[in-house]
Specification:
Elements: H1 3-16, E1 20-22, H2 45-48, E2 58-66, E3 83-92, H3 97-109, E4 124-129, H4 133-143, E5 150-153, H5 155-158, E6 159-161, E7 166-177, E8 195-212, E9 216-233, H6 234-241, H7 254-264, H8 272-293, H9 302-320, H10 328-339, H11 344-348, H12 350-384, E10 389-390, H13 392-402, H14 406-415, E11 419-420, H15 422-438, H16 440-444, H17 450-458, H18 467-471
Parallel strand pairs: 1-2, 4-5, 10-11
Antiparallel strand pairs: 2-3, 3-9, 4-7, 6-7, 7-8, 8-9
Helix pairs in contact: 3-4, 7-8, 7-10, 8-9, 8-12, 9-12, 10-12, 12-17, 13-15
Bound molecules: adenosine-5'-triphosphate and magnesium ion (3 copies).
Residues 67, 70, 79-81, 84, 86, 192, 197-200, 231-233, 235-236, 247 line the site of adenosine-5'-triphosphate.
Subcellular location: Cytoplasm
Catalytic activity: tRNA(Ala) + L-alanine + ATP = L-alanyl-tRNA(Ala) + AMP + diphosphate
GO molecular function: alanine-tRNA ligase activity; aminoacyl-tRNA deacylase activity; ATP binding; tRNA binding; zinc ion binding
Length: 476
């Protein structure tokens, strides 16, 4: 089943059951506590908190999401991307646990010719919060899931909250058993790559107060009304329904891998290491295009830095695969081909996206050229001294003089068996920032607009990229 069909069925199923269909919000969160939207519930947060009255009691959406904390997993696990789409259904004081559970089960398991996804019920496993006997009983007695396929887990996986004050509550997850070729049995509690987590049902009952992290906080009390928030990863469902090994091989991602192969000559499936790079390119190019589409521009702070890091990582992985020249234009065309069907606005915005993307690529290729030579010298020098740690000074010099983002220094040093004194680096960064703040002139340089990119892009090959410094303050 194609991703477009999965989307269609999702929205139709919930619309027919009285849910308002709400279009995806921008990736730029309208929420001061978040840089980017990591989950489908974010646009509905004021309703869940009782701060605003929702215009509907039931809603469904397919929300664009970016999760930067997952970046190091991308391409290594079969299921983590930085950009993905979360299908959700939401109840604001309307239905609660029983309906949320039975609706999810119905949609997943009803036959494809009846509008469902036709999944084999015997392959589905359930997790519940260990204190939530109510949810466990619904799965067992109402839905009829055998008790041996229901697992009780703790706070970490099965109690949901954002790391900040707000709604929270126990959750229950639906996982799909991909079979013994993906690892030993034992259920999602022991093996999260074989038993792929598909759908998270959050039963929002409580309001969370201050505290730290996901487990150590105070519960202020019950929410004004009990709510449902669910999220299913569209790409993960597509992976199962399309019978592919990972989310980078589904219909809306695989074409980018194939384009990268065409550009580098490295076939997919030839070698585990280059396969990781190909998958990173696929995800990161999709993420970059979606972020630029929503108005993010590359820079050194906040969400601008997220974009810069993701995009540069894509380009660097293309170079690890052997590309020597620019690749962003060709990859962009492929991303637009597969994502444009769902997101028409990307096609209308093509010219602007291309300008931003190509300017950043040009800047980065230039940075790489000088920076890599310097980094190699620094690494040799460090090793010659018998040390295995690149100093904070050196990392700072690479950043400050050659525009090497710290993440790149970390990655490239690690490839050569070296660590980096990151603490020392951060200290120097802070000193520099403090100096800049004290310097009134520095402020005036902080107004870059797209014309800076345009100029750079128009110059073509040999560019002197001045937008780098200009953009530095943009997102701060
Ligand atoms: P995992 O344990 O696999 O990292 P999660 O528990 O962090 O997933 P949730 O926060 O529960 O994920 O998000 C709801 C759903 O969104 C998940 O069940 C999954 O289908 C999907 N999802 C989460 N993170 C990603 C990701 N990085 N890439 C693709 N889909 C994701
Ligand atoms: Mg996760
Ligand atoms: Mg999980
Ligand atoms: Mg989860």
């Amino acid at each position: 089943m194609r991703s477009a069909e999965i989307r269609k069925r999702w929205l139709k199923f919930f619309e027919e059951r009285g849910h308002a269909v709400v279009p995806s919000a921008s990736l730029i969160a309208d929420d001061p506590t978040l840089l980017l939207v990591p989950a489908g519930m974010v646009p509905f947060k004021p309703y869940f908190l009782g701060q605003e009255k929702p215009p509907f009691q039931l809603a469904t959406s397919i929300q664009k999401c970016v999760r930067t904390p997952d970046i190091d997993e991308v391409g290594k696990t079969t299921r983590h991307a930085t950009f993905f789409q979360m299908c959700g259904n939401f109840s604001f004081g309307d239905y609660f646990k029983k309906e949320a559970i039975t609706l999810a089960w119905e949609l997943l398991t009803s036959p494809q010719d009846a509008g469902g996804y036709g999944m084999d019920p015997e392959r589905l496993w359930i997790t519940v919060f260990h204190e939530d006997s109510e949810a466990e009983a619904i799965w067992r007695d109402v839905v009829g899931v055998p008790p041996e396929r229901i697992q009780r887990l703790g706070m970490g996986p099965n109690f949901w909250s954002m790391d900040v004050p707000g709604p929270c509550g126990p959750s229950s997850e639906i996982c799909y058993d991909r079979g013994p070729e993906y690892g030993p049995e034992g259920g999602p509690a022991v093996n999260d790559e074989r038993y792929i987590e598909l759908w998270n049902l959050v039963f929002m009952q409580y309001e969370r107060g201050e505290g730290t992290g996901k487990e150590d906080f105070e519960i202020l009390g019950e929410l004004p009304a009990k709510n449902i928030d669910t999220g299913l990863g569209l790409e993960r469902l597509a992976m199962i329904l399309q019978g592919v090994n990972n989310i980078f091989e589904i219909d809306t991602s695989r074409a980018v891998i194939d384009k990268a192969t065409e550009l580098t000559g490295v076939p997919y499936g030839a070698d585990p290491k280059s396969d990781v790079s190909l998958r990173i390119v696929s995800d990161h190019m999709r993420a970059s295009v979606m972020l630029i589409g929503d108005g993010v521009t590359p820079g050194n702070e906040g969400r601008s830095y997220v974009l810069r890091r993701i995009l540069r990582r894509a380009i660097r992985n293309m170079r690890l695969l052997g590309s020597t020249g620019p690749v962003a234009k060709a990859l962009l065309d492929t991303v637009l081909e597969i994502m444009g069907e769902q997101y028409h606005e990307l096609l209308e915005d093509r010219a602007r996206i291309e300008i931003v993307l190509l300017a950043e690529e040009a800047a980065f290729l230039k940075t790489l050229k000088t920076g890599t030579a310097i980094l190699d010298e620094t690494v040799t020098e460090t090793k010659r001294r018998g040390s295995s740690v690149l100093s904070g000074d050196q990392a700072f010099m690479l950043h400050d003089t050659y525009g090497f983002p710290i993440d790149l220094t970390l990655e490239m040093a690690a490839e050569q068996g070296l660590q980096v004194d990151e603490g020392g680096f951060r200290q120097l960064m802070k000193q520099q920032r403090d100096r800049a703040k004290a310097d009134a002139r520095a402020k005036k340089a902080g107004h870059a607009d797209l014309s800076a990119y345009r100029e750079v892009a128009d110059q073509g090959g040999a560019v002197e990229f001045t937008g780098y410094e200009l953009l530095e303050d943009e997102a701060s």
